[in-house]
Amino acid sequence: MFKVGLEIHTQLHTSKKLFSKSSIPSFISNNTFDDNTSNNNKNVSFQDLALPGTQPILTPNSLNYAIKLALSLNCKINKFSNFDRKHYFYGDQPLGYQITQHYNPIASNGQIKLFKRHNPKLSKDLLINIIQLQLEQDTGRSIYHSINSSNSFIDFNRSNISLIEMVTEPNFTNIEEIRSFLQYYIKLIQNLNISSGDLENGSIRVDVNINIPNHPRVEIKNLPTISSILNACKYESNRQYNILKEGLPIDNSIQTRGWDGKKTFHLRNKESNVDYRYVPDMELPILKISSDLINKIEKFEMPISTADKLDYLMNNYNLNIKDARILFNNDKLLNFYEICYKNSNDDPKSQKKLINWINHELLGSLTKSELEFNENIINVESFIELIKLVNNNKITNQNGKLLLLHLINNKDDQLKSIESLAIEFDMIITSQSIDNSTSIIIDNILNKYNDIVIEIKSTKPNKINYLLGQCMKELRGKVQPNIIMNELKKRLDI
Amino acid sequence: MSKLAHIKAVNKKYNIFTSIRAPSKTPVDEFASFSPLFNTTYAIKDNFTTRNEPTTCSSLMLSNYKSPFDSTVVTLLNQSGSQCIGKTNMDEFGMGNSTTSSYFGPTLNSLYPQTESLFIDYEEVIFSTKDIGDENGEFISSDIVEGIKEGYTVNKYYVPKLNRDEKGKVIFNNIDSRQRITGGSSGGSATAVGLDLVDFAIGSDTGGSVRLPACYNNIYGFKPTYGRISRWGLVAYAQSLDTVGIMSKEVDTIWKVFSTLDLADSKDPTSLSDSCREEIAIERINSKKNVGKKFKIGIPIEYKFNELSEDIKQSWEKLLNKLKENKLIEIISISIPSVKYSLPAYYTLVTSEASSNLSRYDGNRYGFRTEDYEGEEPEFRFNRDKAFGEEVKRRILLGNYSLSSYGYDNNYKKASNVRRLLIEEFNKVFRDKHCLMEKKQLTNANGIDLMIVPTSVNLPKLINEGNGDIVEGYMNDVCTIPMSLAGLPTMNISFENFGFQIVGQHGQDYKVLEFTRLVNNIL
Fold this sequence. Notes:
A: three-stranded antiparallel β-sheet; B: 14-stranded mixed β-sheet; globular; mitochondrion (chain B); EC 6.3.5.7 (chain B); AS_sf (chain B)
């Protein structure tokens, strides 16, 4: 068992940077530096380059974003906080220091509970303590072309963008907990609309602190995806386990390691780290956050929490967690579901089937058609009528699905009644029993596939489904499959 | 002789300017004649950004740095019809009180003779800027190129051709043996005013950098309340102390310039807000009401420093007696105990802030970049080692020590506490309210209006004496530092060849100006 704490940097998508009026680049930064065509160094103002004579001016919106995150992580928001300077020289650090919050961060002492009922892979409910949230500025980005080139480039588009650093206590004890938390956190910041939450383009960056009992803490940096975070944790805990098992010498300082995709590797030791010479910034005013501002944000700007919303979906619509999550993750789909649900109040049977038709048949048909869901894809009335037709034994389930696929791809037909459409396609179930013509079809199939009949009777009874399929194909869904099945069983005497 | 030729000739002797601006040929705006500063000229210290010439801070590090934007001070002065004639020499990055640590050599004192030229000729430099207006109607240079470019604004300036020794130090062989230091760090600005080259000059005052050179040149030098004049475009030395100061031979000129620059600026986070300014506007009316009444003048016993020369002591008493005789003042003895600890506290804070602020100069994005470097590491260390002078390096090291994990609590925090105490002590003795304090706090109804204390402990040193003991050099700031730590408005006036400071409570700039005017009438 290991202990893991996370440090997550989240880039805030405010309209302006933290301490300058530059807008935030909308393009995703790539890893090349091309003087002619790239967007490098386009969103850069005097402050972002630390030109002499410039001064930082705080963008108030960054503060609101931080308060939103602090509220949703149940943090104590500090009435007074301030900005500090953290000094170190680096090519992409234009000031020679980073403006961050070291002594008095904006928020502290938060906690988040992840429930097993929302995260079936957790073995129990999980409580994560948040040590603090600090507001700080991002650095520029160093770009190295290749080992052979002595040139490196710096893109200052990222310089001065607002970041929130969140630090958790080492509350994670297995991979699933980390995975669940990261998924929760990413969804949270997207839901709060404060960040895109993309790991791949660096909108959020995760550092891991990990150790197993009797081994000192190790910090792992540069983990670009959730799977790299999880794999690095697995690898590192095994590595520490082997060191202890084989009695190898232990490095007692806090070590920083990187991840190359397969293994963690040594970067540096804490002892060799620089003295950051933290000092309160001398010209940025103390941040005073009034309870009025907090109340206003709490009242008007906070979306419903993930846990509350999942509970609401599960309880109100009697959904399982899997279906609830699909709707939770797709606002438009959820909205469609809720309207359909309301409109089928008169037919509890259809209402009950609704979630299956939306999450499986509708999404499945969309995937086949290479479409994404939007409210114009199918109108509510047609969709409900379709489900009712199936439920009322007017058409078979299979034909219902075909009809849905047809409706999505032929929007004009949504104007017609679904029943008339089913008639047009000759899909209406005409008989509730085995009539003469059906009986003849069944006879023909049994004769044609005599070898399969023999197999069914001897060793492979499940092959009866194949015969059923052949019958339904001939009958074109005009008789319900369960009636045919019963007839087949009767004839084959099984 | 044309005005430019005269300036060039005087500058050859006193080495005042880091660059002299070629007079602009743009026609005078017909409405400009209504401007308060119409037809005046000024010089500005070379740590204020301007778009027309380099902004060097008298350092090799920025010797060729051209700012794409003007400082707010420059923008406001230009809008008020005043013309800048050049940028003035200073101690490197403002670090010093003598204007001898400049990369461009020392500036001489206007009060002492200098007949020979220090250098022979000037280099004319031309560059062009593509100017675009921003949303506030201010202009920035979106492109800066050497020489003349079609469609661009052409800028022309002159820089002295200086001889340097193998270490890069400027050689001046002809300095008159009677010459004394001009004070600093705004020494160029003070000498420019002293020699009547301009109507006024702009300097910056962190620990006395406007008041001390004003004192050494027998002119007025005003350091306003911290935050009253925007610092946007003033290259930071120690932001919690840096102020924009004004020097002139005329009180009225200082008054006009101050009222032109006394504006809130959204670009400067430490600029006093409009609401705060509205509150202290009452102060102007009250200062008028005081005229005709006696001003209560506090004399802090702590200012009787051991180092204070006998001549200055006597002159100080004489000044006070004269003002008493004229029924202008009554004198009250006060005590500000923390003045005793101000000097070490100041040097701890100022070096800490400087070491932090100067971290940005790495030669990467702008500024000096060494060419003969082929190492593996980034060249920051080599750029900084070559381009910073001795005093700058010394202060960066001192500051780094104070901010380090082993020096922070014992040095930086203690110094901050001294500063806090000092401000509290000032609040207790002044009658007026500190303009940033809560209203609830009691003010001392029987408190003083102003203080009058010396600006320096002695006459300026002979320039050939050399720098001597470094700590002794720091000691020269002992009179001016407490006002800097507390952000108080302070005016240097001259009396019998010595300088004295008139000090008001935080926010009481107009009381200081009003009183200076009255003193001026008497003396």
